[in-house]
């Protein structure tokens, strides 16, 4: 069919070639001028292209469409899916509500996107309502919908509901198993994750790399080197490709279990690495006291063209702090701000305070706290006060700063009382200890865990 001499197929070609917001605006104008504004296929194609270029334009275009007749269901699904992959997944739920108010009905493509949004927002109540609607509309036997329901409950922290959902899925696939295993790991139940994997193997279901990443995370949480090595053996024996995610999970497991040499060998053998891989390896090396390797690896990361982000600088600054690299820490902080234009966060300032405090540069650390654009949090203040106590420097802290410490943590009362005692402010120190006693707080003794080989 032609409208004013323009075939829709030609406009579809233009839509597929659009790459900028300017292109989208011109195409929008063309649809209006050529009376193609109600053409379902063109609306769908334009929304598909628009969501990958400009989500604000996609939203504006969608809401400008006539409500009678309503936009096609495919258009709703496209925009709901787009928002479910953004930092604002709740917009998917708003669109779903608008869909329900039209004369359209959601299909088996709609529910997975909306359920994903519920999981990301931890809206388990809304997810439960959607679960009822899924059953009412006879989509309960759909494997894709069932897997997403399972993951939604796990993401919301209701792993028992996720397990019940898993048991109700008539035909399970590797996604079902992987989602349940990841759910146990996310809910800090690593033993449950390993038990599910044992069930999976008994039924001769083959795991994929996603499954194995979750299993390695479970081993990391338990610091279980034996289980981790078993997973590694499975990867090698079955010739599973060592992609970035799997390789990163594997060397992180070895590093957390104290096998830093093996972790480094795996990292170096990986054919592809990304920024996250480098960041985790830098933290692992720092935690194991590998001073030279930390600096070398960060420089290597920059040399191959990877641009450090906020997390990367948090890792290197923390490494400098724990290894006493004051000059290097100052240099990295300066490069972060001046060279990469990254605005320091509270975590970055905290690393600098900790670095300077450990090195005995208490006054400089105090200057960092006073010049922070935001209020220091309790972690920074506790680190600073601990450094003051360790180095015998008595700060002239005001009550406003001391009030930032958590009032329900006994260790903070003891630390602040010790500072007041060092200043000979006996009344303030005694008041703090009395307040601590009145609230029934106690300082939990420090402890260490050492695992000895049999």
TrEMBL record:
PPR repeat coordinates: 173-207, 274-308
Keyword annotations from UniProtKB, A to Z: Repeat
InterPro entries: E_motif (IPR046848), PPR_At4g14850-like_plant (IPR046960), PPR_rpt (IPR002885), TPR-like_helical_dom_sf (IPR011990)
UniProt keyword Repeat, yes or no: yes
Pfam families found in the cross-reference section: E_motif (PF20431), PPR (PF01535), PPR_2 (PF13041)
One GO BP annotation of this record: RNA modification
A molecular-function term among this protein's GO annotations: RNA binding
Record-linked PANTHER family: PENTATRICOPEPTIDE REPEAT-CONTAINING PROTEIN, PENTATRICOPEPTIDE REPEAT-CONTAINING PROTEIN ELI1, CHLOROPLASTIC-LIKE ISOFORM X2
Entry protein name: Pentacotripeptide-repeat region of PRORP domain-containing protein
Originating organism: Lupinus angustifolius
């Amino acid at each position: 069919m032609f409208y004013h001499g323009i075939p829709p197929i030609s406009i579809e070609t233009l839509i597929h070639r659009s790459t900028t917001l300017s292109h989208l605006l011109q195409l929008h104008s063309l649809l209006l001028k050529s009376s193609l504004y109600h053409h379902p296929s063109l609306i769908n194609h334009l929304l598909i292209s628009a969501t990958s270029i400009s989500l604000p334009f996609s939203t504006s275009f969608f809401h400008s469409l006539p409500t009678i007749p309503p936009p096609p269901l495919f258009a709703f699904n496209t925009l709901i899916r787009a928002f479910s992959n953004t930092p604002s997944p709740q917009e998917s739920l708003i669109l779903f509500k608008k869909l329900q108010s039209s004369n359209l009905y959601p299909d088996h493509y709609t529910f997975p996107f909306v359920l994903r949004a519920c999981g990301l927002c931890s809206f388990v109540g809304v997810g439960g309502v959607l679960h009822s609607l899924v059953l009412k509309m006879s989509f309960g036997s759909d494997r894709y919908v069932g897997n997403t329901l399972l993951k939604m409950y796990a993401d919301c922290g209701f792993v028992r509901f996720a397990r019940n959902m898993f048991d109700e899925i008539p035909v399970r696939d590797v996604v079902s198993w992987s989602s349940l295993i990841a759910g146990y790991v996310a809910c800090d139940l690593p033993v449950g994750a390993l038990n599910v994997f044992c069930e999976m193997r008994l039924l001769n279901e083959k795991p994929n790399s996603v499954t194995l990443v979750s299993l390695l995370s479970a081993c990391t949480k338990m610091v279980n080197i034996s289980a981790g090595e078993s997973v590694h053996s499975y990867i090698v024996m079955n010739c599973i490709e060592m992609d970035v995610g799997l390789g990163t999970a594997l060397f992180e497991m070895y590093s957390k279990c104290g096998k830093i040499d093996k972790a480094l060998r795996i990292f170096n053998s990986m054919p592809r690495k990304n920024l996250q891989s480098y960041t985790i390896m830098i933290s692992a090396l720092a935690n194991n006291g590998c001073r030279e390797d930390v600096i070398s690896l960060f420089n290597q990361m920059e040399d191959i063209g990877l641009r450090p982000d906020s997390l990367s600088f948090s890792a290197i600054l923390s490494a400098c702090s724990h290894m006493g690299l004051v000059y290097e820490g100052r240099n990295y902080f300066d490069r972060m701000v001046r060279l990469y234009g990254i605005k320091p966060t509270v975590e970055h300032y905290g690393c600098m305070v900790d670095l300077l405090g450990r090195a005995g540069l208490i006054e400089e650390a105090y200057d960092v706290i006073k010049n922070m654009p935001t209020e220091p949090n309790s972690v920074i203040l506790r680190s600073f006060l601990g450094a003051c106590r360790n180095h015998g420097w008595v700060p002239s802290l005001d009550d406003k700063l001391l009030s930032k410490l958590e009032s329900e943590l006994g260790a903070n009362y003891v630390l602040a009382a010790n500072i007041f005692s060092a200043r000979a402010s006996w009344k303030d120190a005694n008041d703090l200890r009395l307040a601590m006693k009145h609230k029934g707080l106690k300082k939990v003794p420090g402890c260490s865990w050492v695992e000895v080989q049999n």
